Amino acid sequence: MRNPGISYGLVIVCAFSLLLVQCSSEVEKTVTPGWTPLPTISSPPRPSPTVIGAAPTPAPRGECVNDAEFVDDLTIPDRSNVEPGAELDKRWEVRNSGSCDWEDGYLLVRIGSDRFIGVDEIALFPARAGKNAIWQVVLTVPLDPGEYIGRWQALSPEGQLFGEEVYIWVYVPTPTPEPSPTATPTS
After folding, report:
1. Would you state the pLDDT for residue 113?
2. Where are the alpha helices (DSSP H) in 25-161?
3. For residues 92 and 73, is the Cβ–Cβ distance under 8 A?
4. Residues linked to residue 132 through DSSP beta bridges, in sequence order
5. What does DSSP say about strands 161-172 and 80-81: parallel, antiparallel, or unpaired?
6. Using one digit for the tens of pLDDT, what is the confidence trace for 122-161?
């Protein structure tokens, strides 16, 4: 049975109102002796990733690749004995194993040499991709006896070395002394 004097809805509304008033009033901070509030700790900012080296840029479609593969020594086999000061015509057979045709601007450059006298760079003969070509250098051997190695490599018009190195490896022998005349005893 219901009590006609009290409305439950009214009681709920009043209780809720009191609760709201109590929550919105300022809260007094009380400090307990001997207790120190901890400072607010915020997380440090996350470091952004550091790029150590530049990522390679993908080559645009249709860009060719330079490459060269040694096929054969055509002249002056490795470890040949040669005369001091001799002029040598060294030739190598090389395959254009890349996808670029070797045209104007492609060079054969000296990348290391033991005192050979000659050019430091020479234009490459044109060669289509997939075809063989002849690389040639003319150089002079030093006068001193010893072992000499000269190395060359292809250079693109953009200034990039590419392909296998080719080299010449020769010996200038120590001259054998001529026997001195000996006197024959006479009787």
Report:
1. 76
2. none
3. yes
4. 95
5. parallel
6. 999 899 999 999 999 999 999 999 999 999 999 999 999 9
Output the six-digit token pair for 84: 């001091």
| Cβ neighbours around 154 below 10 Å, total | 25
- Mean pLDDT, residues 64-81 taken together: 97
Closest to 120 measured CA to CA, from 102, 144, 138, 98? 138
Which two tokens mark 148?
């000499």
Q: What is the pLDDT of residues 25-49, one digit of tens each?
A: 444 444 445 544 444 444 444 333 3
Rounded to whole angstroms, the Cα distance separating 185 from 53 reads 83
11 C-beta neighbours (distance < 10 Å), count: 10
Transcribe the chain into DSSP letters. Answer: ---TT--HHHHHHHHHHHHHHHHHSPPPP-PPTT--PPPP--PPPPPPPPP-SPPPPPPPTT------EEEEE-SS-TTEE--TT-EEEEEEEEE--SSS-B-TT-EEEEEEESS-EE-SEEEPPPB-TT-EEEEEEEEE--SSSEEEEEEEEEE-TTS-EEEEEEEEEEEEPPPPPPPPP-PPP--
Sign of the CA dihedral running 58, 60, 65, 66:
negative
Fold of 69-172: Immunoglobulin-like (2.60.40)
- Stated as kind and residue range, the H or E segment containing 55 is none
The per-residue pLDDT for 44 is 42
